[in-house]
Write a structure and sequence with these properties.
The chain is mainly beta and 175 residues long. It folds into two domains: 8-91, Elongation Factor Tu (Ef-tu), domain 3; 103-169, PRC-barrel domain (SH3 type barrels). The protein contains two helices and 13 strands, in the order ββββββαβαββββββ. The protein has helices spanning 75-79, 103-106; strands at 8-18, 23-28, 42-46, 49-53, 55-61, 64-69, 85-89, 110-112, 118-126, 133-140, 143-150, 157-161, 166-169. A hairpin with a 4-residue loop joins strand 12 (157-161) and strand 13. The longest helix is centred in the middle third of the chain and has 5 residues, at 75-79.
């Protein structure tokens, strides 16, 4: 699979076909999973190229989602899409509200304590039952380490400066 260009986000993948009229089964990484159906066009990767497909219809079907894409009218054509990742252009996302951020905006930001001590760089985010967690790669006592910092605005996360590329977190650098 080819990594999508910087202006695109992966939202899921085509996992199978449904019926004989070209419907495809879709695995969605959105929350809730049906949100993937709110975006059109989808960009599907094939041999290093990303092709746009308009989403004509979609719905939950049992434990999966199914979608009908423009230009895909039969099972054979749909079979050619199985396994392809589904992406959208970042500009297709609705604007985040005040003090709200998409996860992709936080990845790559440097994290510091209020005193300016570096904690690391955000490499990923994880969902937990209580709150989301920033996964940081950094150093502790001169050695590489990974830190998990809870995403708790105001209590732990004091400031996010997207333009400055940094987050201020009230977190013990020894932890």
């Amino acid at each position: 699979m080819t990594t999508p260009p910087e202006d695109m986000l992966l939202l899921g993948r085509i996992t199978g076909v449904s019926g004989v009229r070209g419907w495809v089964k879709v695995h969605s990484d959105t929350d809730p999973r049906t949100n993937i159906l709110n975006y059109s066009p989808w960009y599907l990767e094939h041999q290093g190229r990303w092709e746009a497909f308009e989403v004509q219809d979609g719905r939950p079907q049992g434990k999966t989602l199914v979608a009908r894409l423009a230009g895909v009218g039969d099972r054979d054509t749909a079979m050619q899409l199985v396994g392809r990742p589904v992406a959208i252009r970042r500009e297709q996302l609705p604007a985040a509200g005040e003090n709200e951020y998409y996860w992709h905006q936080l990845v790559g930001l440097a994290v510091f304590t209020p005193e300016g001590v570096p904690l690391g760089t955000v490499t990923a985010l994880q969902e937990t039952g209580a709150n989301d967690v920033l996964v940081l790669k950094g150093e502790r006592n001169g050695k590489p380490c990974e830190r998990l910092v809870p995403w708790i605005p105001e209590q732990v996360i004091r400031e996010v400066d997207l333009e400055g590329g940094r987050i201020t977190a009230d977190w013990d650098p020894e932890f």
